[in-house]
Amino acid sequence: MDLTDFLAKLLIGSAITLTLSFLCKTVFPRFTKRSKTDFDDFVLNAFAASVVPFGLVVTLILAQDDLGLPNNIARAYDTSLRIVGTIILIRLVNRIGARFLFGLVRRAGADDLQQLLQSLLPLLKTVVWAIGTLVLLQSLGVKMTVIWGLLSAGGIGIGLALKEPAQELFAYLMILLDKPFTVGQFITVGSTSATVERIGVRSTHLRSLRGEQVVMSNSTLTGSTILNFAEMAQRRMIYSIGVTYSTSVEQMKAIPTMVQAVIDAQAHSTFNRCHFTEFADSSLNFELVYYIDTRDFTVALNEQQAINLGIMEAFAQEGIIVPMSNGTVVVDCDATQTIYFTDDNSGSTDFQDPYSNQDYTITLCPDVPGDAVQVNFLSFDLQTNANPNNNDVLYAYNGDNTGADLVGAGTGNSFVGVSITASIDNPTGCVTFQFNVNNNATGGDQGWVAEVTCVTPCSYPEAGIELASPESFPDNPISVGVCPDEIVTFERSHS
Q1: Contacts of 484 (CB under 8 A, 6+ apart)
Q2: Within this chain, do residues 146 and 72 fall inside the same structural domain, yes or no?
Q3: Cα 340 from Cα 356, distance rounded (Å)
């Protein structure tokens, strides 16, 4: 061991290292500040922070021969210093390289590339660490053929394990480069309509209209058809509006002007046309076309809503009636629902929704299989005429269409307090009502109000005896309801 030579080399190396550190901190900045970029200042600061520890490592490596250490200890000493030196260099390269790449992207003014680089930065740093590790192993005398063999064998397994992450990464790159959507835009993918909140490396986070968060893999997004409503600078809206056959010719002529006035009153909408186009079965139809000039989906929905409400208000002021759509209504068997009808548009305003002075057919069906719909008329007042053939009539059918058995026909006040229920032999559990209006309004007839519920179908035997179980119906003391598998108990009466 030559301790004197070791100390001399240590002092010389330390002096050189400290001198370089002094120059980097005090002298060299005078020159870098004159440049138009701050990148050289960053590099100089990064080098100044690393020069002292790296210089000491190099000095200790060069002076180790003078220590005269045993081979095993000398090998461990040298390996440790080389590892520390490699770590310092890799950290320095990663720091300077990241700053350099971000500077290039920033000068190019490409925000999407900057986002891409931010996402790929961990991967790039990992590559630098891998290269530095391989160089270190080679400098330590490790046989690289063995290393390459192990890497080749492990690469197959790693490749299989990273297949899905790599697929998502490439899908992420496609989203950033092609930009089918960006954060904040409203899109539709399959049956999902939502606003984009965050685009990640593996998945994209969406927020649906109902408020829940939807997480979709990037590969699913890139492999699907995406409807991006934010890219619509102009939306073409086309509608069919129907009015009843009782609408006068003067009212028909005025409708296009009324609709145009409603659309012109909106900030983002432009009227195109409104024409009477069709004599339908139960309505006179107009085709309406207008444009909404906005990329904001919410603004477009608000504009559409305002137009729809404005048309309803304009029609109501002029006495124009939109016909009720014929169809099937599913009844919530866990609740009682109330439906109304105003005969000849002359009754109380409480009865204006949804049916008013028009022919229609409607079917009420239970939402629970096996149950039956029951309609209880609380009030009933339809218009009658001197000629019975001109009366307003409500026909009731025991089934899901007008081809089913006719239960009854109500006119005047004939259905007051009447209850109509789908029978036990009606497998649908539905009842159908068909209303025929005479269009001869004289005033004073209010229409009807009914409660709609569901019951379990039962049979109704007649018995002229007093019953103890089950209890008789309140409206008919000699009639009882017996459900399937129910036991009927008779109590003998003594007179």
Answers
A1: 458
A2: yes
A3: 9
Which residues are within 8 A (CB) of 338 and not within 5 positions of it... i.e. 6 or more apart?
449, 450, 451, 452
Domain check: are 203 and 262 in the same one? no
Whether residues 12 and 47 share a domain: the answer is: yes
Residue 194 domain-assigned (yes or no): yes
DSSP 323: P
Give domain status of residue 469, yes or no: yes
| pLDDT tens readout for residues 420-453 | 999 888 888 899 988 887 755 554 456 777 888 8
The residue to which tokens 């539709």 are assigned: 188
User: Which stretches within 109-143 are classed as H helix?
Assistant: 111-139
**How many structural domains does the chain have?**
5
Q: What is the CATH number of the domain that holds 332?
A: 2.60.120.290
From the list 358, 369, 429, 363, the residue with the least C-alpha distance to 396 is 363
Containing 105, the helix (H) or strand (E) segment is helix 71-108
Residue 175 domain-assigned? no
Distance CA 402, CA 432 (A): 7
Q: What are φ and ψ of residue 377, in 5° steps?
A: -80, 115
Query: Do residues 311 and 262 touch, judged by C-beta distance below 8 A?
Result: yes
* CA–CA gap between residue 262 and residue 317 (Å, rounded): 13
Burial of 189 (0-12, 13-18, 19+ CB in 10 A): buried
Which helix (H) or strand (E) segment is 89 a member of? helix 71-108
Question: What pTM was estimated for this model as a whole?
Answer: 0.38
User: Of 230, 262, 288, which marks where a domain is finished?
Assistant: 230
- Whether 116 is in a domain gets the answer yes
Q: Looking at residue 202, which CATH number applies to its domain?
A: 2.30.30.60
Name the H helices within 279-321.
Answer: 297-317
Residue 495 has pLDDT above 70, yes or no: no
Cα–Cα distance, 401 to 398 (Å, whole number): 8
Domain containing 376: what range? 327-455
Query: 170: which DSSP letter?
Result: H
